[in-house]
Amino acid sequence: xxxxxxxxxxxxxxxxxxxxRRPEKWRMFARQFINESDKLIIDSIxxxxxxxxxxxxxxxxxxxxxxxxxxxxxMYVGYMTRESLVLEFSSTMVCLILAGKMGSNISSEIxxxxxxxxxxxxxMMGVNSANFLILPKLLSCTFLTPLLMLMSFxxxxxxxxxxxxxxxxxxxxxxVTGIRYWFIGFYVTYSCIKTAVFGFIIASISSFFGxxxxxxxxxxxxSSTRAIVISSALILIFDLILTKLLL
Amino acid sequence: MxxxxxxxxxxxxxxxxxxxxxxxxxxxxxxxxxxxGSGKTVMLKSIIGLHEPDSGEVWFDDVxxxxxxxxxxxxxxxxIGMLFQGSALFDFATAEQNVMFPLDFFxxxxxxxxxxxxxxxxxxxxxxxxxxxxxxxxSGGMQKRxxxxxxxxxxxxxxxxxxxNSGLDPLTSIHIDRLxxxxxxxxxxxxxxxxxxxNSVLEIGDKITFIYQxxxxxxxxxxxxxxxxxxxxxxxxxxxxxARQLKEHQK
Lengths: 247, 251
Known about the structure:
The complex is a heterodimer of chains A (about 250) and B (about 250). Chain A is mainly alpha-helical. Chain A is built from 9 helices and no strands. Chain A has one domain. In chain A, α1 packs across α6 and α2 packs parallel to α6. Helix content of chain B is about 40%, strand content about 25%. The longest helix of chain B is centred in the last third of the chain and has 18 residues, at about 170-185. At the A-B interface, α5 of A face α2 and α3 of B.
């Protein structure tokens, strides 16, 4: 098991060495970057928006339900909703969801290209396939996933607000006061850093498993599953490490 | 001309290529034949560097390819066109974008010049009005043609085809074979084709190399194949009743 772990880690490092090269044609790289951003980030907006609104709404109801004590001001419902969203949900939970969506998308796409010899065709032409196919995905996921986090954070708060308006679980004024109470800007930075790291993990791990997929369509499915499982596990491990380092 | 000297390749304990030497000449269609699993594809991939041979040399004209530096390899590869067994067209690109891909990477042509070249190549393989179609919208034969168009886009000096007829009906197969032969003659290309299609052997095989269990067992022209006394070759080539009748007729 340890031998396999070291072998795979070594392969991953060599693979990253192949990915991080200067693009041969910047114009083609830019085109790929825009395409990948559209496919991976823009296409994820509806899913993340839907989940964030509902999670924000549920957080308000659950927090209010657990704060029945008259000694705790109701504005803490808004405060705790905001803190839960910015510290954990909009970064870690959203990235775990993205590990499923973007991870399977990336690993199955690259894996299919591998087994249908499309990657061989590129290598044959003298094109660095890892650089051409994967670097745009990697940069797009690393630098644009934080935007999804910010969107999720804002929509989560809006979801909570809608719930407050519709259910009157607490006063609107209390909710708004709580949202604005003791805001620490660094938490947003911390969350953005985490999301960027998670985006890198999702794209690189999924690409790695797709790139070395073997064994036909079954192998592609297998590599996709492994990519999601390992990305998710690494996201949780790095969540702990980054939290310890940054907070 | 391509020359291979004593190349061998193993995967684990299994020796897939065993000390094979041969030459492929310019302007001719050289065929590598053999049953499934005989090592044809590994041989082709070892020649073009997708597999590294364990020993032996691969020469592209006067360049020793398998020990060349990365830049020399890249230069040689830009002179190679390859048609893969499953066409290997990029799913994310239209037929036009597929043919334009090598031009985008290796030339500084303007978009109009590239488009002219793409249209010329597609016209050369008898394809019209497919520019904006994706590979999934094309038939198997059309995909092969787009694959050939992409392979010749950069005016290659060497053309490799891995089982160009697999999955095609006999008539389309003959069209593809003739197209490859015409292109080889027209552009004076060194063409190497992997096949186990006997029609191809008899139609376009200027030189035939027979591989059996990783070893070169026979080499000759398509006319000499009828007089060969190589048992493995005869078992392979004349396996069908029709082929045996043809051999009798030739005699």
